[in-house]
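Quick review question:
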């Protein structure tokens, strides 16, 4: 059957490289519905509520502040070791359209636990709409992706296998979701060590959350506790920050 060949765009080439880098990671996943009624009530009363991605980014980083294992990566060089990062670095999957093609690019957010929720949200929203050349992480990715294959492999090997560079290139955790497009239980693949995915809010005021993690770094019992703590943080610290951002204005009703 005669078809039409298509060039591989730079964003798509980046996904090729990312999938190759993820192939050797022994991922395990745990899914659980989280009850988020207090969070939903706080969000409904806020004039300009933060997006779900921003809330999950900051909530997971707040949990990781007290759970060093969530800031730990597996590194191969100079010898296989577990490397604990001093702070969280989030890698958020950003869906964009470039030159008429749908693509996904990772936006890096350093130390989101120390940032106001509004600033985390602004970073994510800017990454969705700003030109690629105006987003430092995207510029870095595109420069690397333009390199010939042998040099790309070298850059990826350095970024993946040295603990310090893992934090700089890939972060300590990722957040990805298709909730904005109707939801579904997404099990994304990354070089690790942790990636969080969430679905749409259900009628019973729960939201389904999946955590995938590198089994070399930790086991299921700690992640089960992390999900419990994540639910608590969403309903307390994140809900409180939403309420503090200002109530929704009351509309006057004519009589």
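Suggested answer, residue by residue:
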């Amino acid at each position: 059957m005669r078809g039409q060949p298509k060039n591989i765009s730079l964003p798509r080439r980046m996904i090729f490289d990312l999938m190759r880098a993820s192939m050797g990671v022994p991922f395990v996943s745990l899914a659980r519905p989280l009850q988020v009624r207090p969070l939903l009530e706080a969000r409904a009363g806020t004039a300009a509520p933060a997006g779900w991605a921003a809330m999950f980014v900051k909530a997971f980083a707040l949990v990781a502040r007290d759970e060093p294992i969530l800031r730990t990566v597996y590194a191969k060089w100079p010898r296989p070791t577990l490397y604990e990062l001093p702070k969280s670095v989030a890698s958020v999957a950003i869906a964009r359209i470039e030159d008429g093609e749908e693509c996904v690019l990772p936006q890096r957010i350093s130390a989101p636990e120390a940032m106001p929720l509004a600033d985390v949200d602004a970073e994510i929203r800017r990454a969705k709409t700003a030109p690629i050349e105006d987003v430092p992480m995207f510029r870095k990715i595109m420069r690397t992706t333009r390199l010939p294959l042998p040099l790309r492999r070298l850059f990826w090997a350095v970024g993946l296998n040295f603990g310090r560079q893992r934090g700089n290139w890939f972060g300590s955790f990722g957040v990805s979701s298709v909730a904005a497009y109707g939801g579904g239980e997404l099990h994304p693949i990354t070089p690790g060590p942790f990636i969080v995915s969430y679905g749409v809010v259900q009628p019973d005021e729960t939201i389904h959350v999946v955590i995938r993690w590198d089994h070399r770094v930790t086991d299921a019992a700690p992640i089960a506790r992390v999900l419990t703590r994540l639910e608590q943080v969403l309903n307390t610290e994140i809900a409180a920050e939403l309420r503090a951002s200002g109530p929704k204005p009351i509309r006057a009703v004519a009589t």
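Why it works: The chain has eight helices and eight strands. The chain has one domain: 13-244.
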